[in-house]
């Protein structure tokens, strides 16, 4: 009895990138043939199956088991599909097909020429041709799907492995981890208080990184956002140019602390590139910030999330046995904006999901009411949204020491701005593509020694860098960076509303 149980548990843990639905796919092949969709469905399935067999699944969004033309996210799964209007339900399906097209195209790019030839009976031509064909097929499949009984209960897998918690006696092991988390919060907050009490230039020397002056100031782009129409799901319909303006207006500058010997090599922001063998290289000659837009919820209204990710070559060991040291490091800074154009707050995490911290915007405060079994939040200073910000980072650890208004500095080095999606398929010199992330969304080269100590908390390879959409950000209980309702969990409240109450 025990062996089958173990096999079943392990099989469940292997499906980290597969969402489930209450209703399985309807196998109506004759209806498909009548609709002329059989080739589309077979083509989608062939490409997804090939990617899975080759271990090149793009883990940015979770596959919906049995529906190769749909991929989902925690945000999209937060909609109650049974309550949507017919138009909204169609929009919901189309957004999930958009995720599927995006992921499948990333996987197609990473195929060898031989595998592309084998799939050319379904997806012939260039990358542009394949993208267009995936989109056309997806639109037709979604139209067909919308006429069937509704898909309900789409549930993305969480980023925790329950079997590790059982084996690691989680109820007992969580107690010292809880104490450790509280001490870590106090340690980082003390660092931030010391930084706030002194002039940065008196603490150390710094190298500054900035991009060109944005076309619009934050208040101007927020006014523009407030005039955007909403789709049937309540999601702002942002044109690509508007997305760029938003990301540009709130993009942070960087100030990185020097060591005694100046700016260390591993403290220079890098661009990730791939060589002809597929190895991931660190290009410090192109200091880069990667950006993308995601969505969340606040009091059942849709919010826009502006994401800024920075990478470094490594975190060097500070002592002989440093659990947190290893190859690659970095952090993501995120701005939460309401669809009406109000900045609600900011948060950050390292690329491992570690050291999450939230910063309320002026006019708001965070008052979380959490059960004892849930890890507490680390709440930072209140920030002024009308000002552009500089993130001040500690050397080597890349801890966030403080957030201050940006000053234009002639000595600042320019930041290269790229879409986050580039990381999912890095172009090699030979024209092939490679991703630094495996099918579970982890960067294998970045594994940390801490995984041997922290595994009872159930997070796969704690400390390792990972792709967005796969970040667990709490050791105690469960919490994800892409949880669409994280602002509600934080107990974010308007100060004006609180004064009335």
Strand content: 15-25%
The low-confidence parts are: 1-16
Ends apart, CA distance between termini: 57 Å
Q: Based on helices, strands and strand pairing, what is the structural class? A: alpha+beta
C-alpha geometry? globular
Number of helices: 15
**Tally of discrete structural domains:** 2
Question: In which range does the helix fraction lie?
Answer: 25-40%
**Which strand order do you get reading across the main beta sheet?**
12-11-10-9-8-17
Average pLDDT level: 91
Care to describe what's here?
The chain is of the alpha+beta class and 501 residues long. It has 2 domains: 15-146, no CATH class; 162-500, no CATH class. It contains 15 helices and 20 strands. It has helices at residues 2-13, 29-35, 38-54, 74-77, 86-109, 113-118, 127-146, 162-167, 170-196, 200-203, 218-225, 240-249, 451-454, 486-489, 495-500, and strands at residues 18-19, 62-64, 67-72, 206-210, 253-257, 271-274, 280-283, 288-298, 301-315, 326-338, 343-350, 357-360, 364-366, 389-393, 400-405, 413-414, 416-419, 426-427, 433-434, 492-494. A 6-stranded mixed sheet has the order 12-11-10-9-8-17. A hairpin with a 2-residue loop joins strand 8 and strand 9. Helix 5 (86-109) packs antiparallel against helix 7 (127-146) and helix 11 packs antiparallel against helix 12 (240-249). The protein is globular, with a radius of gyration of 23 Å. The termini are far apart. 39% of the residues are buried.
């Amino acid at each position: 009895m025990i062996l089958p149980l173990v096999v079943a548990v392990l099989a469940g843990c292997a499906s980290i990138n597969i969402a489930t639905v209450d209703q399985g796919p309807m196998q109506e092949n004759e209806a498909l043939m009548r609709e002329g969709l059989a080739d589309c469905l077979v083509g989608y399935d062939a490409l997804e199956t090939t990617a899975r067999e080759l271990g090149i699944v793009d883990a940015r969004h979770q596959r919906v088991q049995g529906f190769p033309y749909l991929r989902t996210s925690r945000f999209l799964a937060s909609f109650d599909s049974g309550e949507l209007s017919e138009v909204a339900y169609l929009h919901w399906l189309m957004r999930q097909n958009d995720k599927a097209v995006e992921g499948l195209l990333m996987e197609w790019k990473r195929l060898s020429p031989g595998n592309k030839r084998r799939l050319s009976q379904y997806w012939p031509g260039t990358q542009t041709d394949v993208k267009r064909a995936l989109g056309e097929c997806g639109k037709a499949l979604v139209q067909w799907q919308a006429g069937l009984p509704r898909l309900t209960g789409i549930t993305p897998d969480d980023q925790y492995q329950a079997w590790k918690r059982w084996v690691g006696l989680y109820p007992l092991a969580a107690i010292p981890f809880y104490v450790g988390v509280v001490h870590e919060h106090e340690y980082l907050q003390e660092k931030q208080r010391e930084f706030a009490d002194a002039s940065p230039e008196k603490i150390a020397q710094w190298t500054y990184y900035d991009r060109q002056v944005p076309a619009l100031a934050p208040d101007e782009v927020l006014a523009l956002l407030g005039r955007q129409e909403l789709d049937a799901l309540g999601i702002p319909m942002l044109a690509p140019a508007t997305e760029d303006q938003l990301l540009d207006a709130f993009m942070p500058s960087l100030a990185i602390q020097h060591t005694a010997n100046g700016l260390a090599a591993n403290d220079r922001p890098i661009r990730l590139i791939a060589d002809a063998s597929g190895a991931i290289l660190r290009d410090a000659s192109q200091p880069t910030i990667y950006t993308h837009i995601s969505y969340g919820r606040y009091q059942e209204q849709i919010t826009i999330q502006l994401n800024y990710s920075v990478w470094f070559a490594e975190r060097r060991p500070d002592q002989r046995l440093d659990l947190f040291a290893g190859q690659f490091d970095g952090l993501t800074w995120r701005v939460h904006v309401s669809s009406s154009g109000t900045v609600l707050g900011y948060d950050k995490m390292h690329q491992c999901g570690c050291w999450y911290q939230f910063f309320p915007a002026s006019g708001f405060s965070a008052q979380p009411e959490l059960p004892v079994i849930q890890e507490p939040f680390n709440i930072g200073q209140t920030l002024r949204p009308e000002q552009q910000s500089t993130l001040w980072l500690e050397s080597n650890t890349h801890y966030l020491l403080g957030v201050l208004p940006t000053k234009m500095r002639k000595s600042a080095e320019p930041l290269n701005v790229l879409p986050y999606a580039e990381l999912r398929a890095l172009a090699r010199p030979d024209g092939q593509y490679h991703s630094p992330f495996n099918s579970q969304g982890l960067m294998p080269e970045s594994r940390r020694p801490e995984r041997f100590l922290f595994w009872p908390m159930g997070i796969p390879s704690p400390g390792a860098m990972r792709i967005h959409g796969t970040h667990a950000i709490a050791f105690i209980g469960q919490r994800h960076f892409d949880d669409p309702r994280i602002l509600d969990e934080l107990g974010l409240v308007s100060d004006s509303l609180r004064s009335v109450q």
